[in-house]
Amino acid sequence: MFEIVLIEPEIPQNTGNIARTCAATGCRLNLVKPLGFEVSDKYLKRAGLDYWQFVDVKIWESFDELKSAHPGGRYFYFTTKARKCYADISYRDRDFLVFGKETKGLPEELLKANPESCVRIPMMGELRSLNLSNSVAIAVYEGLRQGGFESMNKAGELHRLKWDD
Question: Which residues pair with 130 in a beta bridge?
């Protein structure tokens, strides 16, 4: 599974949707302050529906605090400013997939300090970016696909058996 990192998320509905993706995939959700909402926010809860009990959420005071707690981690920074495509990375269990705030993305100094770890999701035209929750889902499922959905095979097999009856 992956460590999903949201640095200064602003929109509770996006974070709620990302929490649902984390619950469905077994990823941990790391939220880096300051948050643009209260964790008890009704929009956050509504978007996450009744999945919150299945999500491992960790709130950090800063990204430096998170990195200090996981010094050996592999970090991939998702940005529209990268040259490398997210699908060209060979993801590993416990990789950190890092995303920035909805209005500004990741801090420029973080990107400049980690150019080889910056990745982008290709898009058409001059659009600024994809929705944050969609970007997280794309990244997570690419990593899971590369691993053959190993952590999900049992549930998938049971599901297929049910439909084969």
Answer: none
